[in-house]
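To the team - arginine complex, inputs and output below.
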Amino acid sequence: MIIDVLTEKVAAAFAGAGYEVTASVSLSDRPDLCQFQSNNAFAAAKAYHKAPFIVADEVAAILSKDPMFAEVQGVKPGFVNITLTDEAIAAFADELSADPAKGVPADGGETIVMDYGGPNVAKPLHIGHLRSAIIGQSLKLIARRMGNKVYSDIHLGDWGLQIGLVIAELSERMPQYTCFGEYHEGDELPALTADMLNEVYPAASARSKTDEAFAAKAHAATADLQDRRPGYIALWKEIMRVSCADLRANYDALGVDFDYWYGESDADAYIPELMDILESKGLAYESEGAIVVDVAEESDKAPIPPVIVRKSDGSSIYATTDLAALIQRMRDFSPDKVWYVVDNRQEQHFTQVFRCARKAGIVPESTATEFLGFGTMNGTDGKPYKTREGGVMRLSDMISQVVTAARERMDEQGRAAEADRDETARRIGMAAIKFGDLINHRAKDYIFDIDKFLSAEGKTGVYILYTVSRINSILRRAAENGASASGKLTVTSDSERALMLALITSGRAWELAFSERAPSYICEDVYQLAAAFSRFYHDVRILDEEDPAVRASRLALCSLTRDIITDHLDALGIKTVEMM
Ligand code: ARG
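Output:
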């Protein structure tokens, strides 16, 4: 990559001037002055007791002799400013066109287990699950593209109180079924549907908050289920069948997938082993009838309470299944990293789980457990996004709102009759939602604003799709005219130079996205690419350029830009449309 080539040259120049320093080169902070810069003269000056600008001047003098550079200058207080020749820029861009990896560094080589699902069986997906799904899916695609092996696991919430609540509620509504009593293999179970569960769960949950006897019944049902009471297991399987089909359809619509559909219930098999480890290491002790493990550390600023691994009624809870799942994940995948893409508000839970796992030796020193928290999606009023009635918004409702708005805009543009109108509207809507989310650093809260997300201007998915479709139409017309789009690249204008520079340095965005576990860098970069393309498009002639060599170069640049932008969009899980 270009930055690597420059770094080598700068390192050699420092060495040539007699300074031993680690060299680094970055994109210029002042694009009006130069394209790249090195700030290493400051460190060298310190080590060799000189003024930084003297060192910078010496290094610049050496680099100036290299024909790759149009200009290299030492500037006060001690920067080395670097500008490439147009020939060098075009040569790097040609290299990028021929590179099968399209400039993406792919030397990863780590094994990563990812947890970015966490939907709860029997409850509809709500918008809280949107962020983990799209951030997680994108991080997975980025990590894979960069040469890592990733196993994704949905980690269904299928073994907790929500199932107990549903069982308790159904037992009162349909007491005639034997699953609630003396159940025998083959007995009839109530016929469930996703819609029914979507009504039963909220009703049961609301009731448990005011009706103590009912709450106790739900807790008892949870414990009995975990004890494998046959009728409850049979009913639970039916709930799973109906609910998982619904969840699958929802994730499919989002373009999000998982390699494994394990749930908390699968972790259950590892709980006896977990309890053995915790006991034999003397970590677990009884407290108010529950079994807990201390995880506080001296350096904690806020107190971290002990983690509860078994409740007083004998049931296992959230932390228990997460710890047990870690035993399974280490055994099955031996990962270097385990990534959890979960709401920031669960950070303490994961601190407890990770510390306990480390103390117990479930996770070795060589494996890092990482909590990749995300912020809240707020409405335009700055408060967590809600339905008009103030309830939690269902994910499917939110998606159809945006897709409907996208379709209305298409109709306004007179496109109501297009054959693939619905699919186009769906893609535009999904691009709007995903880009609107991913452009924000994952840890930050953001405002969900349909009008802004669907705008054709600014940092939006729609603007990027618009850019791709514009390039498509240029290349389509070029093909119709028989014009070649495979020319050698040359720089004949400022906007071409700027676009090529943006293209050849875009590998940096992948490195940042991976190292910070934040797809926002890919979003920002793809926006910069699209904006550089728009300036180029408005600035120069392409199809009607008279010089055939210049025309071919510009068409080749269009095609390269489309490839690199599409590559970025792939990693964001965003599909393009042929026409906008
Ligand atoms: N089911 C949880 C929830 O809806 C999220 C699970 C996150 N992943 C995990 N391994 N705990 O809040």
